[in-house]
Write a structure and sequence with these properties.
Blueprint: H1 3-25, E1 35-37, H2 40-50, E2 57-58, H3 73-80, E3 84-87, H4 97-101, E4 108-111, E5 119-121, E6 129-131, H5 148-165, H6 170-195, E7 204-206, H7 212-218, E8 222-225, H8 235-248, E9 252-255, H9 262-268, E10 274-277, H10 291-308
Parallel strand pairs: 1-2, 1-3, 3-4, 7-8, 7-9, 9-10
Antiparallel strand pairs: 5-6
Length: about 300
């Protein structure tokens, strides 16, 4: 072998050795936490905290009710590999009760309606405001995200969990959370200014009782609902609602995207009330950090537009 050939081989060996040494000396890149979230409003808040680090997986990523959603194989796979799962609780996403019970100890699960920092409204035996933690949340109205104060509490809960799971990105999570909380405070103040006096003396009827938190926060008067719990309305109930419309000068009956508007239309026929749509689940929104604000502002816009119209 010539001296030039030997020099080349020796140089190549040194280069490979140097590359291996540098690779071993370099710190390992931290893996992005695998986070799974059940519904779009909560996903938006989690995505805001994770901005610049990663993107959480949204389970219900198409128009569907969380009450009767069926897990796909890809959903089950995501849950089994998750570091963190965030869901509202068994009252809303009953399809998650069994899958979550089988997850190992490595997966942190946040049941929001069971967290003391989340303000909840009980629906069994009254609608007074209380705190979560009784009967595993089964007597709790699950629409907790429709109060921006709960949005702030959710942001803080998720931030604390992510900092524990992924301390390398703790500063990013904290910075994102601070910005998101500022935005939620601004949203709440803007909403309060928009609704000041505008809801007074203008009761509405909903398709189902999804706006208790919103109503409690901003003074919306809910005169009745078409659905009685999960039951379809009978003739007597519809007659009572028509009387409510006439006696209380109800201007608006609100449907939701996952329900047929036919009953609402039949209800207002021959009255001065009209049918409009609200979207408490954000089924028509693009998932992402901005979706939560669009959802809340969309509800305000729909209600005020109907009332003013």
């Amino acid at each position: 072998m010539t001296r030039k050939r030997l020099f080349r081989l020796t140089g190549l060996g040194h280069a490979l050795g140097l590359m291996i040494m540098l690779a071993l000396a370099s710190p390992a890149v931290a893996e992005v936490p695998k986070v799974v979230v059940s519904i779009l409003p909560i996903h938006s808040l989690v995505a805001g905290v994770m901005g610049g680090v990663g993107t959480p997986k949204l389970l219900i990523d198409r128009p569907a009710s969380p009450h009767d959603y069926a897990l796909r194989p890809s959903d089950a796979k995501a849950l089994n590999s998750a570091d963190l799962v965030v869901w509202v609780g068994p009252t809303l996403e009953s399809f998650l009760i069994k899958p979550l019970s089988t997850l190992g100890a490595r997966t942190k699960v946040i049941n929001l309606t069971d967290e003391p920092s989340i303000h909840v409204i009980h629906i069994a035996g009254g609608s007074g405001a209380t705190r979560a933690g009784t009967e595993a949340g089964l007597d709790v109205d699950p629409h907790i995200w429709l109060d921006p104060e709960n949005g702030i509490a959710i942001t803080r809960l998720v931030t604390a969990a992510l900092k524990e799971i992924d301390p390398a990105n703790a500063d990013t999570y904290e910075s994102n959370a601070e910005a998101q909380i500022d935005d939620l405070i601004d949203l709440d103040m803007s909403a309060s200014e928009m609704t000041a006096g505008n809801f007074l003396g203008k009761p509405v009827i909903l398709y189902h009782d999804s706006l208790r938190y919103f109503a409690a926060r901003y003074g919306l008067d809910i005169a009745g609902t078409i659905l009685s719990g999960d039951r379809m309305p009978g003739a007597h109930h519809m007659s009572d609602l028509r009387n409510i419309i006439a006696e209380n000068n109800v201007r608006c009956v609100f449907t939701e995207p996952e329900f047929s508007p036919s009953m609402a239309r039949a209800l207002v026929e021959g009255t001065h009330a009209k049918v409009a749509e609200i979207d408490p689940l954000g089924t028509k929104l693009q998932p992402g950090p901005g979706a939560y604000r669009f959802l809340v502002e969309g509800i305000f816009g729909s209600i005020l537009s109907c009332m003013r119209g």
